[in-house]
Amino acid sequence: DINKIDINKIDVSKININKIDVSKIDINKININKIDVNKIDVRKIDINKIDINKIDTNKIDVSKIDINKIDVSKINISKIDINKIVISKININKININKIDVSKIDIKKIDINKIDINKIDISKIDIKKIDINKIDINKIDINKIDVNKIDVSKIDINKININKIDINKIDINKIDI
Length: 177
Hints:
- The protein is mostly beta strands.
- The protein has strands at residues 2-12, 15-22, 25-28, 31-32, 36-37, 40-62, 65-122, 125-129, 131-152, 155-156, 160-176.
- The protein has one domain.
- The protein has no helices and eleven strands.
- It starts with a strand and ends with a strand.
């Protein structure tokens, strides 16, 4: 259920997607009340290898998320393998995005076997500015993460700057939310 989505400006100069395979996506429910993100500055993040086998999330409650601006200059994703993602509930009431600038997104291969989303509830999302300079991720393997309950009353992020994101390989075996 999506009640209102307000997007003021989205600029995308180039998106290259070679192959996306999605076998099954089921979306039932997710609850996010409000997220405020004002500013996040990320200069450089280098991740060589992350191994996670399983992620189980029973409940995630986010009251407020506000994001002012998202600028993405370059995103390179070579391979993303997702075996199973289970999300119980997602509902979106309002999403406000002021500006999203994406100069280049390169995606080589995305394989998704099964995504089950039961319910997602998002009452309001305001995104003002996100700038990311460079993020290099060579390999992420996710085996198991168990999260029973996450309650976030308020997250305020002023600015996120992302210039470059390079992801070589992401392997996710199972994600349960």
